Predict the structure.
Amino acid sequence: MTQSFDSAPPPVQTPVGSPIPANDPQMIVAALIRRMKGGAANFYWIAGLSAINTVLAVVQSDTRFVIGLAVTQFVDALAFLLGQDAPESRSILLGIAVVIDLVILGIFVLFGYFASQGRSWAFLIGMILYAVDALLMLVFQDWLAFGFHLFFLWGLFGGLRALNQLQQFGPQKTADFPQNIGVS
């Protein structure tokens, strides 16, 4: 049996689901980077839609995005309820709630940034916090939001899995923290 050199090798299925020639590691790495960054972008979606939920809560709209964080919705609802009991401090309570929400959202934006830079700890900690938030949705019996939380957790997991596969192609880093600080 002889091998024909006129045809390209058959494509193989990579972990990212798109056919890539088996002999082109650069294309595999590029596909894994896209998958990792796509998974990390879920953090931005979560933060952005939660920010919109906060704005909607401040203007007292009944509309909410199910992908948003339960914890920010809880903070907003608590501020609203406390503001009903003390109308003179309602604006202050809503302002405090917005500041708390912005801190929480900023943390998720940072997870997105560090995850897109290839930091597995950002994926892991962010996924754990989002899973806890999903459990809050169960407590509130918001089944649709819980389902969307699971969907986004799956996307985050896909980004982490792509990052782990990507690390097999490059040199292994010893640490994320610079090792040569103070060395001249």
